[in-house]
Design goal:
Strand 1 and strand 2 form a beta hairpin. The protein has 18 helices and two strands. The two termini are about 30 Å apart. It is about 70% helix and about 0% strand. The chain has a two-stranded antiparallel ribbon.
Length: about 500
């Protein structure tokens, strides 16, 4: 997102001005869960600490950023359109499964929707850094509404075929290439530096609230009238964010310096990230998890249809349970001041374990009960990576860095979804779900060890009573005083 007050003068690289944060599920809530600027502003090529965030920022009210009029308009519009988006997601997945009876077809639809992010994601970041974000959002939100209306007409007329859904999914993906980095970068232009973390957390709470409402309404509409009405609602729902953008007071937006037009901006962004271990390794981790661990449209439709022999209402229930967990995590995160990379690694490890447990669940209700914690931990992965990366990034580079993050996290789906869909069709939903969880766990272990090594840390296990049983501590170095060791330990304590 963009910058806070005073952002017209570009901050030094790696400053925390104008940073985007996301929701995290709290671990220990002590003040030591944040780090200093020195720990975050890692020079290129140097080892980062396993942490990222502002220095001991005091907690704020859960809804403090809603005091800002422009952000209230934005949040209200997004609530309406997010509800429509979730209705369309449920209706789209169920329509494809009804037309084809194939989990692989659902995977292809998901892959086509995210393929443009993989192919063109970095260009979206360049556009977001270069042009006025409010104007870009007016264009992208209008185009997204149009895709919903097209699918509604095809479905309600009875002419819809699976290739129509594929085509609309790909077109929607093209629009999101620009819309995603723009929306993220625009939040700081509305709220400024002081409320940025809270506003981004509330964005996730907003999205997850819609995830509770949308699937429930979609399930009723699909069962009673068919998928077409859900598509129609989604198309019309984009009138709300468009109206909110038009009603904003541009004089109250925080000024941000735009990247000048020039050659080599993509390469510049890639060089910037490649020289920063605290950026590249979290992006690699979420790439693995996004590619193989976040294929819920495939797994939840397969479990509802093939394992439990239920209909669209059960699929909506599954999505609603995941959304409930995500919403709780988002609201708790709105009270947090920062995020840590060790939380990202730990959440990824737990996420994989929960997926494996759900895949092996002996009954319907055990499976359903595990979906809420999966949603909560999955949200933690997303927003902890998001906030950690944004807090460590120069605002002039943020659009390109975040487009790379989204390209890897979301753009990996076109690679993973068809594979996961094939595994699910061939070996069964349980095997497919176990495979996704196992890959997520393996990636968390490997990247966690890499980050620890780069950060000069080692894993310490102490099973004595009253001690912290598992912790990362600095490696022993000859000639290092105890005071220096304590200083090194502070960022990750």
């Amino acid at each position: 997102m963009s910058t806070g007050s005073g952002a017209h003068s570009a901050p030094a690289p790696h400053s925390h001005d104008d940073t985007d944060s996301g929701d995290t599920v709290p671990d220990d809530t002590d003040s030591g869960d944040t780090v200093s600027d020195d720990a975050t502003a890692t020079a290129p090529g140097t080892a980062p600490a396993l942490a990222a965030g502002p220095a001991a920022t005091p907690r704020k009210g859960t809804f403090s950023s809603l005091r800002i009029r422009n952000y209230r308009l934005f949040a209200t519009g997004q609530m309406v359109s997010n509800t429509g988006t979730w209705m369309q997601r449920i209706a789209q997945d169920w329509l494809v499964l009804s037309l084809t009876g194939s989990s692989a077809a659902v995977g292809i639809t998901t892959a086509l929707q995210f393929l443009p992010m993989l192919l063109f994601g970095l260009y979206g970041g360049v556009i977001a850094d270069r042009f006025a974000k409010r104007t870009l959002l007016l264009l992208t939100q209008s185009a997204m509404g149009l895709t919903g209306l097209v699918l509604a007409v095809l479905t309600l007329s009875g002419e819809v075929q699976v290739w129509h859904v594929y085509l609309v999914a790909f077109a929607l993906g093209l629009v999101t290439v620009v819309d995603n980095p723009c929306r993220q970068a625009f939040v700081s232009e509305m709220v400024g530096r002081d409320e940025l973390s809270n506003a981004v957390s509330l964005n996730s709470a907003n999205f997850q609230s819609a995830r509770l409402i949308g699937p429930a309404v979609a399930g009723v509409l699909i069962t009673a009238f068919g998928s077409g009405w859900a598509f129609l609602f989604n198309g019309l729902s984009f009138l709300a964010p468009i109206a909110g953008l038009l009603m904003m007071r541009t004089s109250e937006l925080h000024e941000v310096e735009r990247a000048p037009r020039g050659k080599g901006q993509l390469r510049e962004g890639l060089r910037y990230v490649s020289g920063r271990p605290d950026l590249i390794w979290p992006i690699v981790l979420v790439g693995f998890i996004g590619t193989f661990g976040f294929n819920f449209p495939i797994w939840l439709t397969a479990f509802a249809h093939h394992v439990y022999h239920q209909g669209a209402g059960t699929y909506s229930l599954f999505n609603g349970l995941m959304a409930a967990g995500s919403l709780i995590g988002a609201l708790l995160a709105a009270r947090r001041a920062g995020s840590r990379l060790r939380l990202l690694v730990g959440a990824a490890l737990l996420f994989g374990a929960l997926e494996i447990a759900a895949a092996l669940a002996p009954s319907f209700w055990v499976f359903a009960a595990l979906l809420a914690p999966i949603g909560m931990v999955g949200l933690t992965i997303n927003v902890t990576a998001n906030s950690s990366i944004q807090m460590a990034t120069d605002p002039l580079m943020r659009g390109r860095v975040m487009s790379l993050f989204m390209m890897v996290f979301v753009g990996g789906t076109p690679l993973g979804a068809p594979i996961v869909g094939w595994v699910t069709d061939t070996f069964g939903p349980r095997t497919g779900f176990v495979a996704g969880g196992a890959i997520s766990m393996g990636a968390a272990v490997v990247i966690g060890l890499i980050l620890a090594r780069v950060g000069g840390l080692r894993l310490k296990i102490d099973l004595r009573r009253g001690r912290q049983h598992v912790a990362f501590v600095p490696r022993s170095c000859k000639g290092t005083s105890s005071a220096e060791k304590e200083k090194e330990l502070a960022p990750v304590a």
